[in-house]
Design goal:
Number of helices: 23
Structural class: mainly alpha
Order of helices and strands: HHHHHHHHHHHHHHHHHHHHHHH
């Protein structure tokens, strides 16, 4: 029987430590006093969260953290210190009503710990404002990043994920040594943090908040030491924008398929620590997991398609009310229905058509994955495909041809729209939404590529698809970057729906508590 190598042994030890700590936590929770949530507003809160999450179109595992962040953003902007000090109770109510946590699952100790976290971060926020050094927006972003991640971690344990990250870091540190990828002393100095950030982003799909909080924890820094907190956050802001960090992320991403499967095994199997030392049994279970992943990818893509379609429809509806309809009434004296309906219906249908062109990996890819994980956990050495470090280089002819094809695609689509009676405003809106749909569709195709080691071969359909939609993908990516900075739809929802809704529901719950108290006073 082939023994585990150092990477495999580290994984087993980390998981055993995480399991023991989680078991101790579960026993403590079972004996602790639970928080029971009662009151009005559960259905409305849950419905709003579904609408809000569709509009935001973010990763599912980040929804709880984002909800916590929105809750505290409202409190911190309102400077409601008294509510911040006891915010754990109100947050428990909102998260329970929204369906993020089950009723009677949070303990009194957890709620009190959340309130203490909020108080510490609020005090740090006040100090940052008094210093005026980082700036108002940056101070709020830093504080909300670390607070939302810390609160979410107090609700859900991430010890197994931490053990996985430690193993992944050790593996990539051997696979991609700093001497092979860093070109100067500055990059060598940033290598550790940049690799850690790349692993988080590529394998866990962590957002900036999670990466920031994880790096702060890695370097033992928090809001209790404000000078160190400021200095490290500034450094993280610079680090995450470095081309070197992005380069490491892409290398990790392309080589991450076997580790992604291992991570899903950690989530789905309780016997993983007993299975790992048995090479043949583990590899057989790993192959079965790969096949499950192929099936799960199709389901995830279908769910993502539905969410993306809802996102497009909501956004298009708001744009139509705000721009298209007023423009038609001003320019034409009536609503021009054909461009309006095409702009509404075509992007979602286009996304569904893109879904039909995506095919799952085959048996050759499965075999390659098994071989790679065998080498990773049981082999003596691992090797990286050299082209992943340096990338492929193509002559200028390819760039020129690609640019010409992009111009032809844009010109052809514009000519077709003009034939259909579109004005320039309608065309601009069509391009915006078709680019957004193309980028969303491209992101869905990445779900398949995340499990690929052996690239699937192209056929005539995919060749034509790539020529037509890649130019729109580039535009959509640029729009997404700008949109993520100022998400107009979520701002509208937050200001016009969430803030009034949750304020009213909070007052109703407070009134209900007042009435109950008055009843108890009656003899």
């Amino acid at each position: 029987m082939t023994p585990l190598n150092q990477t495999g042994q580290q994984l087993v030890q980390g998981l055993m430590h995480a399991n023991n700590a989680d078991d101790a936590d579960r026993q403590a929770v079972s004996r602790a006093t639970k928080v029971n949530v009662v009151g009005a507003g559960g259905a409305l809160t849950a419905a709003y969260e579904q609408l809000r999450n569709a509009a935001e179109n973010t990763e599912e595992h980040l929804l709880l953290q984002n909800a916590i962040r929105r809750f505290y953003k409202q409190l911190f902007i309102a400077r409601d210190e008294s509510l911040v000090r006891t915010s754990g109770n109100e947050l428990a109510v909102e998260l329970t009503f929204a369906g993020y946590v089950a009723n009677d699952s949070l303990t009194k100790e957890q709620v009190d710990a959340i309130s203490r976290l909020a108080s510490a971060h609020y005090d740090a926020y006040e100090s940052l404002l008094a210093r005026r050094a980082p700036g108002l927006d940056k101070s709020l972003d830093w504080i909300l990043d670390t607070l939302s991640v810390a609160v979410e971690a107090s609700i859900n344990s991430h010890r197994r994920e931490s053990a996985f990250i430690d193993v992944a870091y050790r593996y990539y540190e051997t696979l991609i040594p700093a001497s092979e990828i860093a070109t100067d002393d500055a990059q060598k100095e940033e290598y550790g943090a940049a690799l850690f950030a790349g692993i988080h982003k590529a394998l866990l799909k962590s957002n900036t908040a999670v990466i920031r909080a994880s790096l702060l924890a890695r370097y033992s820094t928090d809001v209790s030491n404000l000078d160190a907190y400021i200095a490290l956050n500034k450094h993280i802001d610079v680090l995450l924008k470095l081309p070197f960090t992005d380069k490491l992320y892409h290398v990790v991403d392309r080589q991450g398929a076997p580790l992604r499967v291992i991570r899903h095994m950690l989530e789905s199997r309780d016997d993983i620590t007993e299975l790992l030392p048995k090479r043949e049994s583990f590899l057989e279970a790993f192959e079965q997991q790969v096949n499950k992943e192929y099936m799960a990818i199709g389901q995830r893509i279908n769910r993502a398609i539905v969410r993306s379609v809802v996102f497009l429809i909501i956004t298009k509806f708001l744009i139509g009310i705000a721009v298209e309809v007023p423009y038609d009434l001003w320019a034409h004296g009536e609503i021009v229905w054909q461009p309006l309906l095409i702009n509404l219906a075509f992007p979602p249908l286009y996304m569904i058509a893109l879904r039909l062109t995506h095919t799952l990996p085959g048996y050759a890819n499965t075999t390659a994955l098994v071989d790679r994980v065998d080498s990773m956990l049981y082999g003596e050495r691992t090797m990286l495909v050299r082209k992943q470090l340096n990338g492929r280089r193509y002559g200028p002819v390819f760039s020129v041809v690609y640019a010409l094809l992009s111009v032809i695609v844009f010109a052809g689509v514009m000519a077709l729209l003009l034939m259909l009676g579109f004005s320039l405003v309608h065309i601009a809106i069509f391009f915006v939404f078709i680019s957004a749909a193309s980028f969303l569709g491209f992101r869905l195709s990445r779900l398949i590529r995340e499990l690929e080691i052996v690239r699937s071969s192209s056929n005539g359909l995919t060749f034509v698809r790539d020529i037509v939609y890649l130019p729109f993908v580039i535009v959509g990516q640029w729009m997404s970057d700008k949109y993520s900075q100022v998400n107009v739809v979520t701002i509208v929802l937050d200001m016009l729906i969430e803030l009034p809704l949750k304020t009213v529901l909070r007052l109703i719950r407070q009134w209900g508590s007042f009435i109950d108290d008055r009843k108890d006073r009656i003899v």
